[in-house]
Write a structure and sequence with these properties.
By secondary structure, the chain is α/β, with parallel strands linked by helices. The protein has one domain: Vaccinia Virus protein VP39 (Rossmann fold). Helix content is 28%, strand content 24%. It contains 10 helices and 14 strands. It has a 7-stranded mixed sheet, sandwiched between helices. It starts with a helix and ends with a strand. The N terminus is likely disordered.
């Protein structure tokens, strides 16, 4: 990134977190000519492909200011690879919920951006009164096929009626152009003292700095990039008091993980890993995600 590029200011554009202006160009975009719902899949592997990313020099938040209208892509998005990794993602959800249970072990739980209901299913097994809300029609339909209490849409919603004791927002906040607005909607669904559980990539992590523009969390669907400071700022500005910060682990089928690692090799060296490796689930924690638990105040 040249100094000239970093000084390319955007007049009038304000930071989605702190409201400061102007922003400066931090990473030039490399989007395909025609975006489609396929580009917004959870399992997308076009690492390093983003819109132009602009940096707020006041708080450090990075945002894709030119992609404010992404909801229409999510409404039509399907993702067979995501559903195929349901077993591994269920382990991930279970481990995350065990962390949540240290602060609130029972009660009503809403999973915001519930996908096909993986976390909702695990929460119900653990004794929570669990439901979710999901904008994708195809993923919502899969959740219903699993018999799960998932609503179709986004917040605010007449279907997802609080008050809830817990709201989980797992790998969602980086996908929306108004993260403060989303967090305020989450707050409005919670009981007094209710918990918000937010997970998002950490753009200031060691892995993000090492990989630079090839970091696997640089994706078209990610339009806002947080670090500990900006996530804390967003939560406090939305009526929450952060009470715990962790680095969550992820769980992947071995063949899925190997395939993604191969994206960093020259094409001539790649091969399709054997499908039988999908029987093994691999835990992975590279320290480049944040899990923040916050209490409504």
């Amino acid at each position: 990134m040249t100094a000239a590029a970093r000084l390319d200011a955007v007049p009038g554009e304000r930071c989605w977190i702190c409201g400061d202006s102007p922003l400066v160009l931090e990473k030039r975009g490399n989007l395909p000519p025609d975006l489609s719902p396929e580009n917004f899949r959870i399992s997308d592997s076009a690492y390093g492909c983003t819109a132009d990313l602009f940096l707020c020099r006041a708080c450090g938040f990075r945002q894709a200011s030119d992609l404010p209208d992404v909801l229409r892509f999510y409404q039509e998005m399907d993702d067979d690879a995501y559903e195929a990794s349901r077993e591994a993602r269920s382990i991930q959800a279970r481990m995350l919920l065990k962390t949540v249970a240290q602060y609130r072990a029972l009660g009503r739980l809403l999973d915001v951006g519930a996908g096909s209901g993986i976390l909702v299913a695990e929460a119900a097994r653990m004794g929570f009164d669990a439901e979710g809300i999901e904008p994708s029609g195809p993923l919502y339909n899969q959740a219903k096929q699993h018999g799960l209490n998932v609503h179709h849409g986004i917040l605010p919603s007449s279907s997802a009626r609080g008050p809830y004791d817990i709201a989980t927002v797992i790998d969602v906040i980086e996908h929306v152009p108004d993260p403060i607005g989303l967090l305020r909607q989450v707050r409005s669904t919670l009981t007094e003292g209710g918990l918000a559980v937010v997970v998002t990539p950490d753009v200031s992590s060691v892995m993000a700095r090492l990989l630079g523009p090839r970091w696997w969390h640089y994706r078209i669907a990610h339009i806002g990039y947080f670090n500990r400071q900006t996530l804390n700022l967003a939560l406090r500005g939305s009526g929450f008091e952060p009470i715990k910060v962790l680095r969550p682990s992820w769980y992947f089928p071995a063949n899925y993980l190997i395939d993604r690692a191969f994206r960093y090799l020259p094409r001539a060296l790649r091969f399709t890993p054997p499908a039988r490796l999908g029987r093994w689930v691999v835990p992975l924690n590279l320290g480049d995600s944040l899990l923040m638990i916050a209490r409504r105040v």
